[in-house]
Amino acid sequence: MIPDERGTIVGSDGLARPPWAATDPLLQEYYDTEWGMPVRDEQGLYERISLEAFQAGLSWATILRKRPAFRLAFHNFQPDIVAAFTEEDVERLMLDAGIIRNRLKIRAAITNARATIALRSEGGLVDFVWSFQPAATPNPLTHAEIPTTSPESVALSKALRSKGFAFVGPTTMYALMEAIGMIDTHLADSHRRGSSGVWADPA
């Protein structure tokens, strides 16, 4: 694999990917099939918010490897089920070696399930989050050109906190916006640039 001057790495399959998705097969599959694709269902978006919160301070590869265990532990991230979790469930999850055993993050997932349900009376989580989609998207050539926050991620973070959500800081929300296609931060010459259908490829 040879890095080119634009920041991507061309794999043995001839496809250009960012360095973070170029070597680990699990990350490569995630990048090629999921990352940056629109998520417009409540359960899917709640799961992404939950996993982004668990990822804080850790690598995304760690979260991906544990995602099957997370889905089992949190009943496929069905908000109505997680919202009913009790302190007994928190203690159960703290003993589950398959997930990230962080009490604050576990409680945040429960809190956010309840906040997701509460948002249904205002149009729902999906419309709420997507209302913060910016008018333009970055067009980075290298990873160094990708921001870690934006005015929209700051505003989304503040708005979600006002609705009772936890672990939804501006950096975490920017990562969410990247992951669900609200912005397209695929490098300009990546084979996935413009693949979401949300943003046209400027090239």
Give an overview of the whole structure.
The protein is 46% helix and 3% strand. It has a three-stranded antiparallel sheet with strand order 1-2-3, with no helix packed on it. The two termini are 24 Å apart. The longest helix is centred in the middle third of the chain and has 17 residues, at 103-119. With 203 residues, the protein is an all-alpha fold.
Offer a few descriptive terms.
globular, 9 helices, 203 residues, 3% strand, mainly alpha
- What is the global morphology? globular
Secondary structure tally, helices: 9
Average pLDDT score? 92
Radius of gyration: 17 Å
Counted beta strands: 3
Largest sheet: 3 strands, antiparallel
Helix and strand composition category:
mainly alpha
Q: Approximately how much beta-strand content do the residues carry?
A: under 5%
Report the order of strands and helices: EEEHHHHHHHHH
Q: List unreliable stretches of 5+ residues.
A: 1-5
Helix content: 40-55%
Query: Distance N terminus to C terminus?
Result: 24 Å
Provide the spatial order of strands within the biggest beta sheet.
1-2-3
